[in-house]
Amino acid sequence: MSPNARRLLLHRDLAELERLGVWIEDWAMRDLSADLSFAVQVCLEEAVANIIMYSTTTDDRLEIVVEVERTDETFVAWIEDNGSAFDPTRVPRPPVPTSLTQAKVGNLGIHLMRSFANSMHYERRDNRNRLTIRFVEESAKDRKGKVDVKH
Fold it and tell me: Which of 10, 107, 121, 149 suits a disulfide with 64, CB 3.0-4.6 Å?
């Protein structure tokens, strides 16, 4: 692991989202622009919340590893878990809800991730899910409003 990388182990408990948020604020988001800080916070919390809430793993041994690495212009997060296979890059874009009761929280969270990240990549290896989310500082990119989703 490089000196610019950090790793956090989480368990199947929604209270872990608070610990993740504090961890992100304490280390990962120092010196990031306000826009990038917000994007990172939203995406990592949405990804972990989806894993915790929707994993069909039948025991409480679900482990979620969040690893982040920063350079001057990029921020990359890897989220790995030992739960059931779930590829968020294949979730279809939700229709625009006409009311809050029509909104599906999980799908909207993934839609938020797509909106804020520059790219997302999913792979399943050795019974583990691994989602890579990449962000590029606004000054270093020509963002066209679309995420590059690779399978």
Answer: 10
Where do the domains of the chain lie, and which CATH numbers do they carry?
5-150 (3.30.565.10)
List, for residues 14-65, the tens digit of each pLDDT value. Answer: 788 888 888 888 766 667 778 888 888 889 988 888 888 777 766 667 889 9
Q: What's the pTM value of the predicted model, to 2 decimals?
A: 0.78
Q: Are 129 and 83 in contact (CB under 8 A)?
A: yes
